[in-house]
């Protein structure tokens, strides 16, 4: 008799949370194929949360409807608990509507499987969720080495280990941007992985900066301690802004689906919320999709104007008016910024995109 292949991951404790007995039975059968050692089932979200509070769990398989709450509420409760925020959760549901998938991603799901599913599909999503930590395996090992040296009192060596980790640029923003682009293309699996990698990278950087602060404190260098403690705080704050931006972007995709460029809509929302750097970043993303949209250049001009970047505001505004010389709001802003009315130069309004920097400089002299 042929033996089944060994599972590529080790599952000690797995939890199924479902208000549907038949769904839970099917999920249990598939988990057994992954060689899960202990499978605990709950119909109540509250009881499952209590269990997770006292038991380390490798994976949670979550249904849409529970006996006392819906699956999304359960997932949000998990992510509010610092001890459960990284526990892999895969939703297995019959709800394939775009909005429901987006809501699950916003809440921090690690995978999304539609019922009915094949064994191969189920296992692929479970294994992908379980391997999120491996996305930053090398960096995690570097961080642990730094912590080991710090605990041993080898402060110089610890500083060297932590500095090696943060010597590269923090790539969290890059992966958040990738995640948003995948969401636009409805490539939800890739979007989830991108967002998860962004979170992991940002956490590693924050922990490394905290380690550097403690190492400098151990050396008696209080200035170094305060400097890196501030860097750690800034990194955590940056993470919070990225998470808020992700949730706003998902709101745009859900409720402003007719928008030709969701990054522009995101930028407007961020600007109104007072996050001008975030808005400017969103507008730059928007230009990658529609570079000849005068509204985006105009929105960039307004953001730069409020940020005190006079040259940037002028350049962006002139690009907007080059594309559309009759742009009413742009003409008003031109009068405010330049203190004179706009006179369209030869070639303005023609196809071919915004003008070059040299053309912009000459336009300012008109």
TrEMBL record:
Gene3D superfamilies: 3.40.50.2300, Tetratricopeptide repeat domain. Keywords: Phosphoprotein, TPR repeat. Residues 346-366 are annotated as: Disordered. InterPro entries: CheY-like_superfamily, Sig_transdc_resp-reg_receiver, TPR-like_helical_dom_sf, TPR_rpt. The modification 4-aspartylphosphate is found at residue 63. SUPFAM superfamilies: CheY-like, TPR-like. Coiled coil: none annotated. TPR repeats lie at residues 172-205, 260-293. GO terms for biological process: phosphorelay signal transduction system. Residues 13-130 form the Response regulatory domain. Residues 354-366 have a biased composition (Polar residues). It comes from the Bacteria. This is Chemotaxis protein CheY.
